[in-house]
Amino acid sequence: MSTVHFTCPDCAQTIEVNDEMRETILDAGCPVCTATAAEEDFAVACE
To answer: What angle do CA 43, 14, 24 make, to 5 degrees?
Structure first.
């Protein structure tokens, strides 16, 4: 199983996200600072 991390390009906050949260962040922006998020702001970390 892999884990996905979102790192905000503006505030640099990094959070672990699931698929639903990922879609919400892409639609609404960073949950911390509301900056626009893009696919490249997500990274898969293999466990």
So the answer is: 75
| Distance separating the N- and C-terminal Cα atoms of the chain | 7
* Distance between CA atoms of residues 38 and 46, nearest Å: 21
Q: Which two tokens stand for residue 26?
A: 């892409």
pTM attached to this predicted model: 0.85
What does the pLDDT read at residue 45?
Answer: 76
| Burial class for 32, CB neighbours closer than 10 Å (0-12, 13-18, 19+) | middle
pLDDT tens, position by position, 1-33: 568 999 999 999 999 999 999 999 999 999 999
Tokens of 33: 């600072």
